[in-house]
What we know:
Elements: H1 5-27, E1 67-68, H2 84-94, H3 96-99, H4 106-112, E2 130-132, E3 141-148, E4 153-162, E5 165-174, E6 178-182, E7 185-191, E8 197-206, E9 211-221
Antiparallel strand pairs: 1-5, 2-3, 3-4, 4-5, 6-7, 7-8, 8-9
Amino acid sequence: MPARRPARTALAAAAIALLSVTVAACGDQGGLRGAGATPTAVSPARLWPDLRPASSPAYPYDVATRETVKGVAVPGDDIRRVAPVAVAEAEFAAHPEDYGSKGAYHATVERTKQCVPGGDAARCPLLKAYYRDLTGDGRPDLTLGFRLYPTNQTAVRVYTVEHHRLVQVLADNDAIIGVELAGRALIERSPAGISGYEYRTTWTWDADQRAMVFSRDEFLRTGRGRHSHPAGTPSAGSGSPSPASPAPSASGR
């Protein structure tokens, strides 16, 4: 962000000045030496102070999703003992408008039948399950993904356990080229319409809404037509299906 550059320059200059003093103290018993002039910080200028505030958002955006999962038990309140395929199937049953025969993602349901031992793993839409504490309660939460056929979108879901019940605390569909867990945040990377750029959307836990909320949306340069790779990947749950690589497509933004 350009507004922060003067402050960073001042900090760098201060560090150089401190290093110069240290070096001088070793070989020169003289006084302190100046590091030169530093840029003056400029406060932000408020534009159009008389502009009438908008009364409604430009477009709707679901900042939080929360839903109790029906029909899926959590043995011993241990989310690792919940079968990821059962969680996905519970969503299919709860939302026939999306996954029914006339739904936008109807082919996902048929392909999920292959997510069993002996099935065709290449056709299984379910991605590898990951476990990390994203809610801050000291227990692992489930991050689940599955392809939304016949589209090029991917469903990203996060689940936690509350009062012995499985609760979905994040639900987002997008064209995905990468997902990262950073601390207690989930970051989605999506293709942009301009070569060499991508969107990065960050979701973080909100204790008041009891859900992962949309907190930041960035449009970042990644290079000349190449997308950056995730810095690292968290530990995957054992016995989960191997992920199918999503094909980049135009984002639905």
